[in-house]
Amino acid sequence: MPQPPEHDWIEARLVGARPRAMAALLRYFRDLDLAEEAFQDACLRALKSWPKNGPPRDAEGWLIMVGRNAAIDHVRRQAKLTELPPEDAISDKGDVEPDLAERLDAADYRDDILRLLFVCCHPELPATQQVALALRIVSGLSVQEIARTFLVNERAMEQRITRAKARVAKAGVPFETPGPVERAERFAAVSAMIYLVFNEGYTDANPASERASLCGEAIRLARLMLRMFPSEPEMMGLLALMLLQHSRQGARFDETGVPILLDDQDRSLWNRSMIAEALAMIDKAMLHHQPGPYQIQAAIAALHARAGKPEDTDWAGIDQLYAALERRAPSPVVTLNRAVAIWKLKGPQAALDMIAPLSDALDGYFYFHGVRGTFLRQLGRNNEARDAFAAAVTLAGTAAEAAHIRNALDQLENCSTRQT
Amino acid sequence: MLYTLLCYNDEMVTSAWTKEEDAAVMARLDQVHRKWAGNFKPMLRLMPTSAATTLRKSENLVVDGPYAETKEQLLGFYVVDVDNLDQAHAIARELAVANPGGAYEIRPVMLYYPDGSAIDDAPAA
Lengths: 420, 125
Description:
Domain RNA polymerase sigma-70 region (chain A): 18-79
Shape of chain B: globular
Structural class of chain A: mainly alpha
Number of helices of chain A: 20
Number of strands of chain B: 5
Largest interface: A-B, 28 and 29 residues
Family (chain B): Belongs to the YciI family.
Low-confidence stretches of chain A: 84-103
Radius of gyration of chain B: 16 Å
GO biological process, one term (chain A): DNA-templated transcription initiation
Domain YCII-related (chain B): 1-110
Strand order of the largest sheet of chain B: 3-2-4
Distance between the termini of chain B: 30 Å
Largest sheet of chain B: 3 strands, antiparallel
Structural class of chain B: alpha+beta
InterPro entries (chain B): Dimeric_a/b-barrel, YCII
Order of helices and strands of chain B: HHEEEHEE
Oligomer: heterodimer
Order of helices and strands of chain A: HHHHHHHHHHHHHHHHHHHH
Largest sheet of chain A: none
Strand content of chain B: 15-25%
């Protein structure tokens, strides 16, 4: 049944209000299911009341209050203690709004939001459950939508989310107001979870797919966090990083879904307004003089974004930034990325030397073998290159990745035939 | 007579728009822009408030985020073309010396059409 047009703006308001309203309802009820039911109830009442009475000035406050009352009524009704008051008495915003606005001050909201996101990234939850739970609870995607995103059936996703909620409930919602150290820890966990949501979307070759829309959702969550915590340079860094990566979406894959390397991308397809916003965020973050891994990664992505042509890329700057990242957050993958900058600056032998010590740690990593094959091929060590590419093919996570490496193998075959 | 039309909306709502919804709004606005092309002067769309900083004039202090006080009212705005945020802040500080009291919110511009008619052109970077 087609909805009347006025429902479009109501839907948009409800989606926009959801994270903060859910966050406050979770504080009241300390239970995800109850908070969710309360929010659903409030939305149903909004769909009835708003077209008639117009939208409330403070939509979030309205939803929180109506949701809370509805849930309390629900509990009472089940207990058969009192009769349900007439609907109008609950949904009439009338004189309750100013009072409400006073009670929902900014400090409450901030910790509510942080708590709501934090319960979704409980350390006991595996990454996929964290992402699924955040999409259900914070973003309000339906189980069906999330199931389509992860390419699993609805029943399996329902179970996954139910299990995740049970674990969260068992661990207990951290209700108390966090201290500074705890707040910083929650912040780091939430940042990592937001980046997980982003990466789920980033791997999808089809920009119109449900999964690819997760990139936009992650960006929205980071914006929400920055609205609540405007002076967190790492959150600015994360937002900038995601915007820069997302800006290349239209250029990252060919029509058949095979990834296109950065050097070969049509840079006119990069989204300029996302890049501009990211560069502004990095500028702003740098005023704090508190560099961190997200800011550094954003700065690296920015150097790519600033280069109009691949040969204009500031590889020396990228090498320095990776070196800074290695010091702060050492990992074989960071060193592998740095080796690509070294390759551009000093050639394939220096790059190959740099990644030689990584072979144990990254033996199961697709990109390691792909990059190693590229260096070896350039050094003319074609047999070793072929082995490296063959190893990469077996480790490829997607058909498109495998196709990309097979291309490299084909090129290798072509040039060996020409040589012979 | 010159008037400014200051655009207000809930950012949580507008940032929840999909790319298609955003494009649809821009296309509908474009119709109006074209109809009144002779009347429109500079037009611009600001980046989200998350990109904003604010210079509090009395304390000469730059803080993150938009200017959110309701006691004061928006009295006007400048558009400055600068190399970076530092330079924008430097100009704002000089303005603050000349005109103390209140604050300047410094917010990057997302779309800019200097003469209001170059709707088909790519926006200036």
